């Protein structure tokens, strides 16, 4: 008997000119694709690569260079490593984890698993991790192990289903608003320090106009390449200096070099004490995954046709991929901490594209950026970087959160979530308001009545307890000194 999935896509596929609107063609593509978990998928047999896939690929590459640089640089400062080490390690991550890993897992083996990106919220904790005697390899291995446990037990998808609409909306609004304000402030500070204060005003002003127009004509998926390119051109034309400094080349490929005592990280291999020191931080990193993954999946649900269930991001499989990538990447010598790749998923969802097509292009762009070096300079240039993050990540997060909060009950949950996030951080805010929402103390009380005791109290309560204890151990609760 013929497999129900076999050749389904090729048989049902139509050419774009057969549709009146491009959007209709893209939605039809989403409806006829049926991705299978942990099976071989091939381009043009199970999915196609479209022009729209280039946009999230560009956004993902820019985001990857920026976030991995920030992560590795934070480690380098703590361990007294040079800027040359940072550039070398970023190249290594782009080549191994950003290129080969992406194609293997998110394009071929499981297109429902989002690409494994960078865990941005962990960057501020790196000085604390180093001060506690942590080792990057020990941290990476434990994050991968804890993540695999959560994914195997289906904990990620369960937590997602227990997070109410109001809590989701509040979390997205907070992340979007805080990130937006932060990026604009950093851009303004950079402009002032470069003696070009008017550059940030002109660039942001034009970005607002372009973004509003793209939203009006329903072409927001073009925002990242168009606005980033304009930001670079405008800044350069206004006299801001830009130079290519990273020359073509290949990084060191030997893990023993990276984890040597006098080479690479200059830390040697971790011992038992290093693993003990990073336990609370590894738990916290994995606890942060659920709200992060939740926010990315929401964008697909908002932009895809309702019946396109077979192409939606699988939270548990994404956790599996991120965990494996974390263990492999750290073992090879990389300094990245993995999570769901937001700078890829958000623009891909807005462009109505599934994961694998853009994943292939992302992998190729990451490899090219690593080998040629010069694209890394362009992606990290302040006008390009800030505008890409504003229109590609934080504005869409803010808009998605506002779209979700439609009822009065949901607005109460959202408001409480924003308050709790501002009080401590998004992990605490999500865990607390999920518990309160499921208990029926805020939000939709009728929804709470339909939940079992396990769903209403035990699981959310346990998650809240894990988050609070991990935050306390890491010194992230206001007024409470950390143990580590």
TrEMBL record:
Claim: Ribosomal protein is one of the keywords in the record: no
Lineage top rank: taxon: Bacteria
Coiled-coil residue windows: none
UniProt keyword terms in alphabetical order: Membrane, Transmembrane, Transmembrane helix
Pfam families per the UniProt record, alphabetical: DUF3360
Keyword Protease: no
Transmembrane residue ranges: 54-77, 89-108, 128-153, 165-184, 196-214, 221-239, 272-290, 355-374, 380-400, 412-436, 456-474
Name of this protein: DUF3360 domain-containing protein
Species annotation: Algibacter agarivorans
Organism phylogeny: Bacteria, Pseudomonadati, Bacteroidota, Flavobacteriia, Flavobacteriales
């Amino acid at each position: 008997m013929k497999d129900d999935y076999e050749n389904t896509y090729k048989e049902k596929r139509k050419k774009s000119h057969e549709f009146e609107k491009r959007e209709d063609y893209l939605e039809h593509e989403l409806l006829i694709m049926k991705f299978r978990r942990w099976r071989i998928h091939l381009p043009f047999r199970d999915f196609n690569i479209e022009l729209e896939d280039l946009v999230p690929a560009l956004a993902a590459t820019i985001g990857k260079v920026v976030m991995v640089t920030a992560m590795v640089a934070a480690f380098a400062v703590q361990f007294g490593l040079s800027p040359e080490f940072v550039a070398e390690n970023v190249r290594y991550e782009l080549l191994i984890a950003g290129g080969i890993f992406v194609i293997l897992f998110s394009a071929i083996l499981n297109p429902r698993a989002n690409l494994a990106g960078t865990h941005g919220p962990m960057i501020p904790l790196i000085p604390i991790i180093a001060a506690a005697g942590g080792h990057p390899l020990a941290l990476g291995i434990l994050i991968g192990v804890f993540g695999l446990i959560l994914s195997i037990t289906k904990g990620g998808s369960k937590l997602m289903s227990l997070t109410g609409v109001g809590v989701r909306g509040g979390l997205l609004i907070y992340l979007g608003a805080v990130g937006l304000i932060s990026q604009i402030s950093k851009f303004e500070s950079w402009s002032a320090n470069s003696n070009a204060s008017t550059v940030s005003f002109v660039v942001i002003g034009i970005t607002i106009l372009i973004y509003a127009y793209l939203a009006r004509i329903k072409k927001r998926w073009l925002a990242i390449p168009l606005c980033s390119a304009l930001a670079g051109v405008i800044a350069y034309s206004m006299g801001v200096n830009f130079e290519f400094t990273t020359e073509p080349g290949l990084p060191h490929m030997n893990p023993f070099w990276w984890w040597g005592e006098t080479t690479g990280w200059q830390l040697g291999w971790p011992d038992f004490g290093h693993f003990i020191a990073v336990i609370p931080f590894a738990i916290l990193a994995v606890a942060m995954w659920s709200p992060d993954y939740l926010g990315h999946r929401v964008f697909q649900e908002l932009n895809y046709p309702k019946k396109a269930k077979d192409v939606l991001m699988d939270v548990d499989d994404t956790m599996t991929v991120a965990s494996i990538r974390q263990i492999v990447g750290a073992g090879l010598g990389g300094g990245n901490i993995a999570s769901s790749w937001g700078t890829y998923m958000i623009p891909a969802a807005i462009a109505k594209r599934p994961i694998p097509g853009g994943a292939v292009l992302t992998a190729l762009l990451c490899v090219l950026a690593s080998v040629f070096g010069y694209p890394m300079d362009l992606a990290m240039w302040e006008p390009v970087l800030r505008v890409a993050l504003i229109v590609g990540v934080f504005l869409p997060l803010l808009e998605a959160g506002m779209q979700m909060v439609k009822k009065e009950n949901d607005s109460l949950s959202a408001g409480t979530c924003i308050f709790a996030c501002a009080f401590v951080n998004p992990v605490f805010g999500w865990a607390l308001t999920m518990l309160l929402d499921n208990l029926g103390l805020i939000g939709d009380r009728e929804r709470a009545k339909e939940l079992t005791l396990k769903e209403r109290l035990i699981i959310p309560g346990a998650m809240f307890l894990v988050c609070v204890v991990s935050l306390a151990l890491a010194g992230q609760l206001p007024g409470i000194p950390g143990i580590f």
